[in-house]
Amino acid sequence: MDGSGTHGAGTNEPGADREPGAPRLVRRKTVLRAALAAAAAIPVAMASGPALARAAAASGTAPELTPSCDDGDHPTPEQIEGPYFKPNSPQRTSLLEPGLPGTPLTVTGYVFGRACLPLTGVLLDFWQADDNGAYDNTGFRLRGHQFTDSRGSFTLTTIVPGLYPGRTRHLHVKLQAPGRPVLTTQLYFPNEPRNNTDTIFDPRLLMTVRDGGGGREAAFDFVLDVPQDPSPGPTPPDGTWAVGVAYRAGDRVTYAGRAYVCLQPHTAQPGWEPPVVPALWRAA
């Protein structure tokens, strides 16, 4: 994952050993994330729901590891499903219920494809242990699925899972982009003593976690094996900024009577107008 931003990072952050004063490379996905965050106030339009991961879970075909983005990020590894996955979880972004004990936890992030472009309508199916380390196998407590929004982002509101015997603290998740294979994996918490003894633990799946909001706030970005074409689309004849056009670094557009220069390759989305996202555009 991308160690240069605020989201899930591996143990060896790229550039961490660079010499003092050396320029720090800004990754394409980091800039895209900044642009996405800047557009967070724009109303989202959910894509039609893809075939759910639960429908493919019994196929027995293990998805290949997802590839890295072209900015040098690590891939999102697959992990075992474990014995407690249940199909048909309710669609919801919050797993909290009245009287549910535990430390509140919010997990946020983005889902990207192979060209580091955000993916809309990706299924994320979460399940986890409760505060005592137990899974609900009769109902759907602490289980739920959701879809990424038009910016490729997701938010999960839940509690910090308790310790299950023999395992370190973790969350389970299945991801599936429309028409693509299922990725089953797990997310981990940093600085957990059992991280050193859990044979399944993978440091590449560590979330970035901090205290805040009366509980804990975590972040992680996924990369799925979804082909994407980062090449530019047709530029409007008059050079006016337009939604759906794939711009390259150096492209020039006009918007509201002003000229702008593209800083990073991206496909224009609603809410990404040049004055709104200085991470992608600068005034010419």
UniProtKB/TrEMBL annotation:
Single GO biological process annotation from the record: carbohydrate metabolic process
UniProt xrefs under SMART domains: ChtBD3 (SM00495)
Cited Pfam families: CBM_5_12, Dioxygenase_C
Chitin-binding type-3 domain sequence ranges: 238-284
Any one of the GO CC terms: extracellular region
Keyword match Hydrolase: yes
Segments of this protein annotated with the region Disordered: 1-24, 62-99
Keywords, alphabetical: Dioxygenase, Hydrolase, Oxidoreductase
Record-linked InterPro entries: CBM5/12, CBM_sf_5/12, Intradiol_dOase_C, Intradiol_dOase_core, Intradiol_RC_Dioxygenase
Superkingdom: Bacteria
Keyword set includes Chloroplast: no
Gene Ontology molecular function terms on file: carbohydrate binding; ferric iron binding; hydrolase activity, hydrolyzing O-glycosyl compounds; oxidoreductase activity, acting on single donors with incorporation of molecular oxygen, incorporation of two atoms of oxygen
PANTHER family named among the record's database cross-references: DIOXYGENASE, DIOXYGENASE, PUTATIVE (AFU_ORTHOLOGUE AFUA_2G02910)-RELATED
Entry's family note: Belongs to the intradiol ring-cleavage dioxygenase family.
Name this polypeptide is given: Dioxygenase
Lineage: Bacteria, Bacillati, Actinomycetota, Actinomycetes, Kitasatosporales
